[in-house]
């Protein structure tokens, strides 16, 4: 398992070693490619794992949010995905992009949480079992949601917050299979190939679903979304920090033998 060696917060004791680690993490770790960070994580360095989480937090959150339409449950799915990744890192094959592997985990966790929430199950059960459990490779095809009604009208004024809220409402009104592809292609700006890998689809299906998603949006909404896509379903710094800290807390709770090596 990994040793806890995350970047020190301001509340930590200000030692020279801690300061050096913080500088190393900011200046060195963030510049490392995924494969090197994965290898460092396998070598018991949780600074590398934290760097990977912060690198992909927004993408995983947007995937989960597009399926669950709920901020808190989306966070839960992202945490569950990271815990599964932590427990099954040796299963990752370098032939595939690490970000796509994480995205697929988040996609499956979001589907699991949605299924549990609709059947009255405990939505945190997959997180509790994630450390000892193997990653499930069963096919989990996305199900069509209810047909969307009329998309919300675009904001009339120049209020960015109102525009953002109405764009998000219009996206939320789409069926899930269109919504997730739209978020990844337009908001997260992934290529069609990357979206296909993340969702386990073929590229033709991705193109078809994107086209249908855009057709269901009103013209002015689609235009605004193309013009201002990058702040939709944004992950705030507070949510990002909470996800990272809670993942490490869960790792410690499940494996108390892991020491804090800060």
Tell me the overall shape. Answer: globular
Spell out the helices and strands N to C. HHHHHHHHHHHH
Structural class from helices and strands? mainly alpha
Q: List unreliable stretches of 5+ residues.
A: 3-23, 121-155, 257-262
- Percentage of β-strand residues: under 5%
Task: Report the total helices.
Answer: 12
- State the end-to-end CA separation: 16 Å
Tally of DSSP β-strands: 0
Radius of gyration: 19 Å
What does the average pLDDT come to?
A: 76
Portion of residues within helices: 55-70%
The main sheet comes to: none
Number of domains: 2
Report on the structure:
Helix content is 61%, strand content 0%. The protein has 262 residues and is an all-alpha fold. The chain folds into 2 domains: 16-141 and 235-254, no CATH class; 160-227, Arc Repressor Mutant, subunit A (Orthogonal Bundle). It is globular and about 50 Å long.
């Amino acid at each position: 398992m990994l040793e806890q060696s995350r970047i020190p917060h301001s509340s930590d004791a200000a030692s020279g070693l801690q300061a050096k680690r913080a500088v190393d993490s900011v200046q060195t770790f963030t510049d490392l490619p995924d494969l090197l960070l994965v290898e460092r994580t396998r070598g018991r360095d949780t600074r590398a794992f934290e760097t990977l989480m912060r690198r992909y937090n927004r993408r995983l959150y947007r995937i989960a949010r597009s399926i669950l339409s709920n901020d808190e449950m989306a966070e839960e799915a992202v945490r569950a995905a990271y815990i599964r990744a932590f427990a099954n890192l040796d299963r990752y094959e370098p032939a595939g992009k690490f970000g796509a592997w994480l995205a697929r985990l988040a996609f499956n966790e979001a589907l699991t949480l949605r299924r549990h929430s609709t059947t009255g199950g405990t939505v945190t059960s997959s997180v509790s079992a994630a450390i000892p459990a193997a990653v499930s490779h069963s096919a989990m095809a996305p199900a069509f949601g209810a047909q969307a009604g009329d998309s919300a009208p675009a904001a009339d004024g120049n209020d960015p917050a109102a525009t953002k809220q109405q764009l998000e409402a219009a996206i939320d009104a789409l069926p899930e299979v269109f919504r997730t592809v739209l978020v990844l292609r337009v908001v997260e700006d992934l290529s069609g190939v990357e979206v296909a890998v993340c969702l386990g689809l073929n590229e033709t299906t991705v193109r078809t679903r994107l086209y249908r998603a855009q057709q269901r949006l009103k013209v002015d909404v689609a235009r605004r979304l193309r013009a201002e896509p990058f702040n939709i379903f944004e992950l705030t710094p507070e949510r990002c920090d909470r996800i990272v800290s809670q993942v490490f807390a869960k790792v410690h709770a499940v494996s108390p033998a892991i020491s804090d090596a800060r």
